[in-house]
Design a protein that fits this description.
The structure holds two protein chains of two kinds. Chain A is an alpha/beta fold. Helices cover 34% and strands 28% of the residues of chain A. Chain A is built from seven helices and ten strands. In chain A, a hairpin with a 4-residue loop joins β1 and β2. In chain B, α1 packs across α2, α1 packs across α10 and α8 runs parallel beside α20. In chain B, the strands form five sheets. Chain B has a six-stranded mixed barrel with strand order 4-5-10-7-9-8. In chain B, strands 17-18-23-20-22-21 form a six-stranded mixed β-barrel. In chain B, 49% of the residues lie in helices and 18% in strands. By secondary structure, chain B is of the alpha+beta class. The chains are: A alpha/beta, B alpha+beta. Chains A and B meet through α2 and α3 of A and α1, α9 and α12 of B.
Chain lengths: 225, 795
């Protein structure tokens, strides 16, 4: 599903050039649950941003479902992103001015889903995430775990092919964190490909495969049984 | 999608009520000012355009060239010109002559009016189609002894009775029959009158000059022309130019050229220079239009600055929306939608403000402007105005916010505000520069007015009264004068051909002892006076003596003023003979020199003036005794006037009131500039207040650390205030030369004017800094007083 080959990303300032990704090559199959781990500054968030088409690489190839997307323009990237990719962030990144329902509805608005259909789909997803009873609440009225469940609901409402999760349990206690990991596992079992960046070995164990990065390169891959 | 944008926008407003209120209020004031000025400008441009055939109506004028005065343009023309244009130029559909507006007495039974009107040619109402509500438009001027009244005049004379066919006595001289009633003239008509008499009526008056119809030298009339459909001024201009030159040999030395001015330019382009219209009231229309745009711009800059300053609050939303798949243009559209929403709310508030301000504004300007709520075009224009304002104000925030780097904002690593700092400072400088320029303008205008007001008038204006003189009053002048003096309420009485605050007549001195060969004749102001005039008015005799009371009208002697002595280069004026077209061919003897007196505009040098001895006057002049009660005195004098002038109502004016009116326009301009400058500063300060709050919030941690390290409240206050003060000082430095340039140009209109001193700019800068400190001190001191524990804990 995803094939990156010799991917490079540099960050340049006036004095220093930092290599974030150093000819990185990774294959991810459809339906996989992959965890990406490594020390701070190893390039895992950079990799996630490029995979999520939020950033573009300075070199190398990125095939998404067989299509080279490495140097897509903003319009094409946005289009691909909204139809195929869902995001879950460490700090939830819900919009404070929108209710739970409206936050989850937002991706559907961007993909042009008619209003009547949006209501049905949002309610279905909220129900699945067991957050339906808080549909009219605002994010600041929810606990961390509830907010992250809303974020996951928002990520999946468009039935994306892939979910990118950047430290999804980083701001949660262990109980809520486990809940979120269970949700992601359920989604993966239903066929959604998940790529997760994490510091937590515990969370990584939910994945099928762990890719460890160091200095922008893969240093180890573990297959989880 | 728009529903989503509006929802988010509305909830943002409610979440940040303080900033929303500042944004909406600031924009509302800016929009209100621009709207008010827009209504006024529209009113000014609407003058005369309501007339059918307005595109074919013209006033005929004449350019004359003299050695000393260059080319000047005058409206006063000779009657033969009207006849020639009418007969010899088929391009004209109609040509109408008219007298200048004059005050006449109209009497019906015991109803007496003393009001302005004109005599006009027979086609006047076919050209200027003011609605005739009674009477037949083709017949109204057939009878020389007929009159057309406006509706208000008819009501005043006849109440609700039908006035058609009824008799009105004019000037206690002639009976005329009411032939028509016109709807009252709208305020935006350059032509204003209460009645019209046919031009042929003049022949039934004792002062009608029989030779006027053939005398090219008698330039005392107005001429109007209407082109035929399809004819243009360009086609006829070259043809009519030499008409006076070709027909009037006496005029040839002055190289006369006939021109025409279209009616749509009468109100705004009344000033001519070198024979072409250069401006007039349009200068003020332009000036206030610019002020309106500037004030709106200041308000929009406020919006831009506050929105970009608070962009950190929206950054995450931008990142999330982009991650969801929103394109940059969709985000731009979202933020522009928000700014248009703010503009709509501001507009609603602005309309309320305008409605509340209109009565005072109308009183100040002497207008009857109203908001045309029922005019669909108004709403179309307003919709465009709101959209334009919303887009303008929201443009910078929209593009700024939508260009945030998605990755950085979602990660929380983007430092927002730093990159926007320089543009924000530039905008604050621009804002304050506009406000400072307005303040400087207000001060200079005020100084110019005061300078002119403080100019020595040259006569004693206090308790000096003027009343119109009719034929009856002239006949009984001696008795009138004696009775007035016997009341013990007045010091002196005299009469003159024009009020002491005006000059009605100009004549020509064409020869004098020191005149050089080939030197041009001298155009002089001319006032015919009784004896005792100078003593009554307080004009000072520098040399010689007044006219004697024992003389009957003595046309062989004159007094002249200092300006005339200087202009003619008379070394010893007394006893000199000058030749003047208002006196006998042999010349007139100068018997006295009068100190220059301001009888016309206080903004120009005093004209060369001749005072001749008149047998009758248009105006009686008298001064009340210092201890005489004004109301009682006027009442008593009125009774005396009524006794000798039963056909006319008593009218009077105080000279100081009449003189004060000369400053009306400048006072109005000064007041309006002051009001708008105040509003501009208010809006700028509103923005500054919001920005100061934002800056204080941004620097919470820094302030906390500084306080822990020992900074005092004053030091923290100084830290937060310095940046803003520097910006305001830069504004002053930029605004001052620009304001100087424009004000210098404005002052050049006035021959009697101030010079712009540097103190104005320094004082304005000090005031601007003081206002700035006052505005931001609240936020700065509040930040300085915050417990550092709280501010550091939040980090």
């Amino acid at each position: 599903m995803i094939k990156i080959t010799d991917l490079e990303k540099f960050y340049r300032t006036e004095e220093v050039e930092t290599i974030a990704l150093n000819k990185l090559s990774i294959d991810i199959k459809e339906g996989e649950f992959v965890a990406i781990m490594g020390p701070s500054g190893c390039g895992k968030s950079t990799l996630l941003n490029i995979l999520g088409l939020l950033d573009d690489p300075d070199g190398g190839s990125y095939l998404f479902n067989g299509t080279e997307v490495a140097h897509f323009n903003e319009r094409k990237r946005a289009d691909l992103r909204k139809h195929n990719i869902g995001f879950v962030f460490q700090s939830f990144n819900l919009i404070d001015e929108l209710t739970v329902f409206e936050n989850v509805e937002l991706p559907l608005i961007y993909t042009g889903v008619p209003a009547s259909e949006r209501v049905a789909r949002v309610e279905k997803v909220l129900d699945k995430m067991q957050i339906m009873h808080r549909r009219n609440h605002y994010p600041q009225q929810l606990s961390g775990g509830q907010q992250q469940r809303v974020a996951v609901a928002r990520a999946v409402v468009n039935n994306p092919k892939i979910i990118l999760a950047d430290e999804p349990t980083g701001n949660l206690d262990s109980s809520n964190g486990n809940e979120v990991m269970e949700l992601l596992t359920d989604l993966n079992e239903q066929g959604t490909t998940i790529i997760m960046v994490t510091h937590s070995e515990h969370d990584a164990r939910y994945s099928h495969r762990i890719i460890r990065l160091l200095d922008g390169q893969t240093v180890m891959e573990n297959i989880m049984i | 999608m728009i529903k989503n944008y509006i929802k988010v926008a509305w909830r943002n407003f409610l979440k940040n009520k303080g900033y929303s209120a500042i944004n909406i209020a600031g924009l509302a004031v800016g929009m209100a000012v621009a709207l008010l000025i827009g209504l006024w400008v529209f009113n000014e441009y609407s003058y005369d355009r309501f007339l059918p055939n307005a595109d074919r109506l013209y006033q005929v004028k004449m350019n004359l060239t003299s050695q000393h005065a260059g080319t000047f343009t005058q409206n006063a023309l000779a009657l033969p010109l009207a006849d020639v244009l009418r007969q010899d130029y088929p391009e004209f559909e109609y040509v109408a002559e008219a007298t200048w507006s004059g005050t006449r007495g109209l009497v019906v039974g015991d109803k007496k009016l003393y009001i302005d009107g004109s005599t006009v040619g027979p086609h006047f109402l076919k050209m200027f189609q003011f609605p005739l509500i009674k009477g037949n438009g083709n017949d109204v001027f057939k009878d020389p002894l007929s009159i057309v009244l406006t509706a208000s005049t008819a009501k005043a004379l006849f109440n609700d009775a039908d006035p058609i066919g009824k008799i009105v006595k004019i000037d206690n001289l002639n009976n005329v029959k009411v032939a028509g009633v016109l709807k009252d003239l709208p305020e935006n008509s350059s032509l204003q009158f209460n009645y019209l008499l046919p031009f042929s009526y003049n022949e039934h008056t004792p002062y009608w000059e029989k030779s006027a119809r053939s005398n090219w030298g008698n330039k005392s009339y107005k001429v109007y022309a209407m082109l035929k459909p399809g004819a243009t001024y360009a086609q006829v201009a070259a043809k009519i130019k030499p008409v006076v030159y070709n027909h009037a040999e006496v005029m040839r030395p002055a190289k006369p050229e006939v021109i025409m001015q279209p009616i749509k330019d009468w109100h705004l382009y009344s000033e001519y220079e070198n024979g072409v219209p250069v401006g007039g009231f349009i200068d003020y229309v332009r000036m206030f239009s610019i002020i309106g745009v500037l004030v709106l711009l200041i308000a929009c800059i406020n919006f831009m600055n506050l929105s970009t300053a608070r962009s950190e609050k929206r950054a995450r939303e931008v990142g999330v929306r982009k991650a969801m798949g929103s394109l940059k243009r969709e985000l731009v559209f979202q933020f522009l939608t928000e700014s248009v929403l703010v503009a709509i709310l501001s507009f609603c508030l602005a309309v309320i403000m305008v409605q509340l301000a209109l009565p005072s504004f109308n009183q100040l300007t002497g207008k009857s402007i109203s908001v045309p709520y029922t005019n669909p075009m108004f709403w179309v224009v307003m919709a465009s105005y709101v959209l334009f304002t919303g887009l303008l104000a929201g443009s910078r925030p929209a593009f700024y916010l939508s260009s945030f780097n998605t990755v950085k904002v979602l990660k929380g690593t983007m430092v927002i505000g730093k990159a926007a700092s320089l543009p924000r400072k530039v905008l604050v400088v621009a804002q304050f520069a506009c406000s400072v320029a307005l303040i400087i303008s207000t001060v200079i205008i005020y100084q110019q007015i005061q300078h002119a007001k403080n100019r020595p008038i040259g006569y004693d204006i206090n308790r000096l009264v003027m009343s119109d003189m009719s034929d009856d009053l002239n006949k009984n002048y001696d008795a009138l004068k004696n009775e007035m003096l016997q009341t013990g309420l007045i010091n002196n009485v005299a009469y003159a051909s024009s009020p002491v605050t005006n000059v009605y007549q100009h004549t020509t001195v064409f020869d004098w002892p020191q005149k050089n060969a080939g030197e041009e004749a001298l155009n002089t102001a001319t006032v015919r006076v009784s004896d005792n005039y100078f003593k009554t008015s307080g004009m000072q005799l520098l040399q010689g003596h007044d006219f004697s009371s024992s003389w009957q009208q003595d046309t062989s002697r004159v007094l002249i003023n200092e300006a005339a002595v200087k202009r003619m280069g008379l070394k010893k004026p007394l006893g000199q003979k000058i030749k003047w077209n208002g006196g006998p061919e042999a010349g007139v003897e100068v018997i006295g020199v009068v100190k220059d007196a301001l009888m016309d505009s206080p903004f120009i040098p005093v004209e060369a003036t001749i005072f001749s001895h008149g047998s009758m006057g248009n105006v009686a002049v008298y001064n009340l005794k210092a201890n005489a009660d004004v109301q009682t005195s006027i009442k008593k004098i009125g009774q005396i006037f009524d006794k000798y002038n039963p056909a006319y109502p008593f009218s009077y004016r105080f000279a100081d009131d009449a003189y004060a009116e000369k400053f009306n326009l400048e006072v109005l301009v000064g007041k309006l500039a002051g009001v708008f400058a105040t509003l501009a500063i208010f809006i700028s300060c509103l923005g500054l207040f919001g920005l100061a709050a934002y800056v204080a919030e941004q620097r919470t941690k820094e302030i906390g650390i500084r306080k822990v390290l020992g900074a005092s409240i004053a030091q923290v206050w100084l830290l937060l205030s310095t940046d803003f003060v520097v910006l305001v000082l830069i504004s002053c430095l930029l605004a001052s030369p620009v304001a100087y340039y424009f004000l210098h140009g404005w002052l050049l209109k006035y021959q009697y004017r101030i010079s712009i001193e540097p103190e104005v700019f320094i004082a304005t800068a000090i005031a601007a800094v003081a206002i700035t400190l006052l505005t931001i001190s609240f936020q700065a001191i509040k930040a300085a007083l915050t417990n550092p524990v709280k501010s550091l804990r939040s980090e």
